Amino acid sequence: METAKESQWHEYFEGVFRDAGPWLNYPNPQCQTQTWALALEAAGPVAGRRCLDVGCGRGNLSLILSAMGGDVVGVDFIDDAARSNRYPHIVWATQSLADASFGKDLGSFDRIFILEVLQYTDLVRGLQTLWKMLAPGGRIVGTVPNRDCPIVTRTMARFEGAYSAPTPEALSSAIAALEGLDFWACRGLAFQADQRIAPYVALAWSTDLRWTEPPNRMLFAAAKKS
Length: 226
Hints:
The chain is of the alpha/beta class.
């Protein structure tokens, strides 16, 4: 049974799917496109790898991964027949990361993408669930909003607890606690004053997330030991 929080997000994202417009995580296409590009860079090679796209939405990142040679499974908590109709060569699943049964029938993966999802569920539990699905030598790449950013703080207030962005300290602790962690790093994505080409400036990769000016997003990559 869905919780009130899950029901709220079902209704919200069903509207996003229906209206085919932007939403709070990607207010314009440039934000989404640049996020995908930076995530793909962080993932390393995907050709010949089994890839999981968690929170796949309309399926565009999954399609990109498939075009790059990945064996792709896209999963989202919104059931969308259009995904399978448009891209029948990709495996689609309707599941919620908040459910205890998530991923039990999906197998293991070499690359897991978790872009703009963890703010809707328990950060630690969500990461640990996906980590168990990651094959040795594999890599998880994700983005989350930064609670220290004033824009994100206002978004959290708007949704009254249903949207829970982590602090840099909470993200660092959750990743560092993953069993069999080989390495990890994170980079901030800060809005540029001039957004005509790209909305974000991507800060340097680091495990020290003490930024002078808090970025809007945190992009992280974590690799499991072989």
